[in-house]
Amino acid sequence: MAIQKLTAPLDYVNPNYENWGIYKLDKNKDAFLIEVVERIIEKSRTTYPTTRALFDELASTLYQERIRVTTSRWKSDPEDEKDFWNNVKGQIIKFQKAQSWEDNDRAILETLLKKILYRYAYEIVANFKPRIFELAQKFLPRILFLFLNSKLNSPFKFLFRKMSSFYEKFIITGDFELIRNLSKKGTIVVVPTHFSNTDSPLVGWALSSIGLEPVTYGAGINLVGTQPLSFMLNNLGAYKLDRRRKNALYLELLKSYSQMAIERDTPSLFFPGGTRSRSGALESKLKLGLLSTAVEAQQENFIHNRKKIFVLPLVINYQYNIECSSLINQHLVEIGKEKYVSDSFEYSTTYKIIRFFKHLFHADTEVVVSFGKPLDIIGNEVNSNGDSIAPNGKPFDIKGYFEVENKIVRDEQRNFEYTKILGSKIVSSYFENNTVMTAPLVAFVYFIQLKKRHKHLSLFEIMLLPREDRIVSRDNMMAGMATIIVKLKDLEKLNKVNLSEIIKESTIDNVLANGMNSISLFNSKKVVYADSDGNINSQDVRLVYFYHNRLIGYNLEEYL
Amino acid sequence: MKNIYNITKPIGILGIGSFGTVLANLIAERHSVVMYARKQSTVDNINVHKKHRDIEILPNVTATTDLGLVASKCDVIFPVLPSYAFRSVIKDLSHFLTSNHILIHGAKGFDVKLDYSQGPVELRPRDICTMSEVILEETPVYRVGCISGPNLAKEIAQKQPAGTVLASKFKEVLAIGTEILQCDRFQIYGSNDIKGIELAGVFKNYIAIAAGASAALGYGENVKALLITKGISEMIAIGKALGVEPKSFLGLAGIGDLVATCSSPLSRNYSVGYRLAKGESIEQIISTMTEAAEGINTVKVIKYLSDTMHIQAPLVGIIYKVMYENHSLESGIKMLMRLNAGQDVSFY
Asked: The domain B11-192: what is its CATH number?
């Protein structure tokens, strides 16, 4: 089947929510958590084979938690936290005083380990309430669209409009039949790009639009702690991650939780980039920790003759990004260190605030959510039977990757190498399914020309150029746009990238005008604009750099 | 490391060169071995006469012309092929390979995607594949390894002790490969830097040509030592441009192999240099060799690569001039001595 564009929402593949993985997980929460904790206890006997090693790990956990409790408290933290860790401290001291390192004393430590793990587990665990899901499904997209969407003269009418017309502006593409088919045969793990806080609800909406059941995913515990988002996330299947905690036991629990949810056929979602892409570039280095849980789950599923796991890359493209200022600022602070002095990007004057809202309701733009080809756990493409396709085009069985002489051998290091392979395939899929829109295109051509003219200057010096040195002549801009559009069209023919309709069909003049208009929409400054002579300039090169990054990785620079 | 793997299926060997043959015998001391050969006459020699390349073949080595049979009988296969034939044989084999297979190669050359036979071309890292990369491109196999080190086939055939480096990103492959290869006279060292180990094995070949030539001219140990140490520096510089760290060049597959091949008339690349210095042309030498000397092509590839990438690689430049641009060896040595030597150790 070919790639399609969604025109109206599809029925649920699995209409009865009682059969949804996430619902079943919520129903059997306690039994599930017992299983998770028991598996970690079992594993700890190999990871910490001696009583001493286990003691050291517990002591290290206590040490890190006590620092967190005293130095970094959040509103969302439970009130009894201090008491809990004081109690753990008491037990650790008692054990240490007894100085009993005999193996038969391990049971005491395992009880303590269990206590800590259960506390973590109940903090993390996802809830799912079908009624709240229904409600969210009805209104969340509308609120989201209101936030992101097009020429709205009356936001209130919009809230009650028919959903199908939204698919004109909020484009969803992919091989839906294949994806729906695979969701019946296996467990889906969705791996989207991540640029904005609006990504999670957008992905949730896109999944339900093509009839997939809701997914479980990790949300920062700080997000969950803020009203009113907390109530929604808390009841829509998000499990809660605490980014302050880096201790081995917590991370192990998180991974086991995620892995066993997948093993229990709960569709899941990870943002493999980790957090939002600060630079604005497509993720090319992925965080493999959580992704590896999908590979481990596949190994266990093979051992127990359970389902195959399918990985579904997803690229989200916005014309503009409301959070771009703060994202690029964080990126530049990180890479620039002493070379970059951040200044405030906030809308400080009344004029700017008015300008912002004026644009919010007059913007003409679109959002594209592209589902890539579904992959198996090693990154091979799969056909509609769920069979993996080898490089030579033949269907084959991937179970052998986990076997030695036809017996499955558990091997974390091997599986991590497979995760790296999967990661690189996901990155390729991102680039192939990325839809180039006018704003990043204009930013790219403008920025590269500026950079090439000032070759001797560093990125940070370019950003501080005076206005007259930031001019790119209209002729150069048009010629550059023409060259890059030709190259992009060549890449599109090879299925290496997608282009938005306007780039494919309109004149270069229109593309430039549309790009300049879109890129400045939510910004108080004109990010790229034509001056009175028609030449191209920018009031904020930092944001130009942010949008230009989206086209990095296609080797287009060399043509300018 | 405690080895938990007990390999019971036969081990496959692709390639009937001298190293492939001694490797088959070495493995056959504890496992049965299936060798693949293209010619029926070779297969008959091995199966019936139990002799190949003047080497006695152990009883539990069998040969076949059927690649499919090798793939179906063996989960672990060692392709020990010359680099020019590597891709085509692997392509043929790929039809029979599944996710169960593990491939550990013993080839020491490059696969170049551009045609460089007609003269200098612009070569970039993306135009060059190591053998493990060829396997990854052509087959569904991910569990790939390589062996490389000072392993002169004749000495192993004489049952002299030796060591080699087994490299793979997968600890599983290292453990399985060690289980298959290790014995009282063959020591296996592990590495997870497969590309570094492969490059070390490839690069040392052109240094060996220079060492052979220097010996033929009657130069002694001083020149050899100069060639080995400066050769290592140059190998590291080129390796860095191809994205590998220096450490693999400093071990058994780098310095170790270089010391062996730069000292031994048993090395094919060494003998190429030796004969070159004695006045034979490169065409004459190639026409009389029974097995490929990988260094002959490696010199060209590295010369074109270092020119394109602006890598300082004076040794390969001089060897190239002597081999392909009719410079005399004496002038080559003069060039070497007139180089702006600079710092001794500069690769860290």
From this structure: 3.40.50.720
